[in-house]
Amino acid sequence: MKRGELGASLNLEIELIPDGRPNRPGVPITIKKITVHNTSNTGRGADAASHSNWVRNTGYYEINGKRNYVSWHYTVDDHRVIKQLPISEMGWHAGRRGNSLSIGIEICMHQGIDQETAFDRASRLIAVLLYDLNLAIEDVVTHKYWTGKNCPVLLLQGQKWEEFKNKIRSYLEGMIQDSEDPADQDV
Ligand SMILES: [Zn+2]
């Protein structure tokens, strides 16, 4: 599949965290990795739209009376991808190093979601990002890689992470192949 087709298949919506919100620090990042998360929110209705509302309007957890702000770049469910931050800006999702070196992707896991469709959509998004940013499959990492947290909880089970990366690899290789097809070249 070509880059344009794959991009169009994502059903991407843009709902950025407003400038000036505490969880949008506006700090530039150097993108070396893509960090994958699961929301760990199994509640009914905890889909991409609901997480997008939360991260734009609240965006913090209160622990012992202290606000812990969080943010990430994309939220994915079985119907859509919602972009929450420009990829050039830092989000707060993966610890100090992970935040300053990676794009954060949250994959929903609520009751009633078609989970495989959500993972497939996320793998297409990640393939497009790798392609656009000239990164490699080895640059896709888990939240656990940065901080040890058990996240993405569903993809850390059994062979799931390897299967997920294989899916990304096949979309990425498909785009590279199609872009090199001589029939595509304007002469
Ligand atoms: Zn996480």
How many strands, which pairing sense, and closed or not: the largest β-sheet?
6 strands, mixed
Q: Ranges with pLDDT <50 over ≥5 residues?
A: none
Please state the structural category.
Answer: alpha/beta
Shape category: globular
| Proportion of residues in β-strands | 15-25%
- Following the backbone from N to C, one meets helices and strands in this order, namely HEEHEEEEHEHEHH
Radius of gyration: 16 Å
The share of residues in helices is: 25-40%
What is the fold named in CATH at topology level? Lysozyme-like
Q: Count of DSSP helices?
A: 6
Q: Whole-number average pLDDT?
A: 95
- Under CATH, the homologous superfamily reads Peptidoglycan recognition protein-like
CATH architecture: 3-Layer(aba) Sandwich
Domains counted in the coordinates: how many?
1
Strand order in the largest sheet: 1-6-5-7-2-8
DSSP strand count:
8
Bound molecules: zinc ion
At the first level of CATH, the class is Alpha Beta
Distance between the termini: 21 Å
Can you give a write-up of this model?
The chain is an alpha/beta fold and 187 residues long. The chain has one domain: Lysozyme-like, CATH 3.40.80. Helices cover 36% and strands 17% of the residues. It has helices at 3-8, 48-57, 95-101, 115-133, 143-147, 160-179, and strands at residues 12-14, 33-38, 60-63, 66-69, 74-76, 81-83, 102-107, 140-142. A 6-stranded mixed sheet has the order 1-6-5-7-2-8, with helices on both faces. A two-stranded antiparallel ribbon has the order 3-4. Helix 4 (115-133) packs across helix 6 (160-179). The protein is globular and about 60 Å long. It starts with a helix and ends in an 8-residue tail after the last helix. The mean pLDDT is 95. The structure holds zinc ion. Residues 37, 143, 149, 151 line the site of zinc ion.
